[in-house]
Amino acid sequence: MTVALALLLGAWLVGHLVPRWLGRLDLCQVDPTPVIVAWLTSIAAALAAGVGAVIVLLLPNHGVVSDLAVLHHCRTALLHGLPPTLERVSGLLVSGLLLVVGLRITIVGLTEWRRRRRERRGQLAILRLAAEPDSSAANTLWLTHDRPLAFSIAGRPGVVFATKGLIRHLSPDGVGAVIAHERAHLAGRHHLLVAVTELLGKCLPIVPLLRQAPHAIRELVEIAADAHAERLHGSDAVRSALLTVSDDGAPRGALAMARDGIAVRLERLRRHASPDRYAARAARCVLAAVVASTLPLAEVSLLLVTAVVACMDTA
To answer: Of the candidates 91, 33, 85, 95, which has an alpha carbon nearest to the alpha carbon of residue 221?
Structure first.
């Protein structure tokens, strides 16, 4: 049971410490893509550690870890004086708790996912009736309205909706920046990332990592989409679009350009903080994924080191 408890402790530390570390980053300067990877990998690692703890607890004798000859005496020393009944009861309690959490994630997640899918289908059906297709751009539809507004809705395929008010209030580069921004959301599957983090945050709001992830991911995907639009149309066009486009009128579940993290994004554009080059970005993403995924295992590694030391002392 010791390894299972170490995994649970590792998951707890990731759930409480990682959001503090990531929250200290200056989003006006850092590349958003590695930060998104760090958030998502940390969530996956914490959940995997919890699932791993359940598996270890359910295996006979808590798995092969407890049968390693090298650590046998160490395990005996660490568990000396602990009644076997107490160990079994505590193992059952922890397993039951984690299974309840897993059932909650499954039930709430499936219910919310189905609701979102029905809602998205209804929105697309209504908007398609009122919109005019763009002959020069696939999956881009124009709404007859003077308010400058643009948003994207995920689907197969995803669709970008824009009002003709954009053309009246923005320069051609500004309009292009808005459309490029929304297409970046679809290409990067940003709607899926936001939806998954919101579902997990709703299921387990008690965990800071899951509670804070939806807001952080929404802000980061908007910064990433801005960076894509900036590369194509320049920072001035993106800044002008952010100051002009309305944030009122986009349906729930859509990603709208002028909804999240406006102050940070404007400051970033003012500083002309461009993302890293592809190779540097890929390296940072890999590093972020490796560090985040191994954090829960740090407790298991510490346990094994302690076991070896104790084994040497009792030899």
So the answer is: 33
Q: Residue 40 domain-assigned?
A: no
Query: What's this model's pTM, rounded to 2 decimal places?
Result: 0.82
Q: Vertex 288, ends 109 and 207: CA angle to 5°? A: 35
List C-alpha distances in Å: 196 to 201, 213, 288, 297. Answer: 9, 10, 20, 24
Q: Say whether pLDDT at 177 is over 90.
A: yes
Does a structural domain hold residue 222?
Answer: yes
Q: What are phi and psi of 162, to 5 degrees?
A: -140, 145
Q: How many helices (H) and strands (E) does the chain have?
A: 12, 5
| Domain around 264 | 123-275
CA 233 to chain CA centroid, Å, is 28
How many domains does the structure of the chain reveal?
1
Average pLDDT rounded to a whole number, residues 270-288: 80
| 92's tokens | 């059952």
Do the domain assignments include residue 240? yes
Burial, 266: exposed, middle or buried (Cβ in 10 Å; 0-12, 13-18, 19+)? Answer: middle
Residue found by looking up tokens 């859509």 in the block: 254
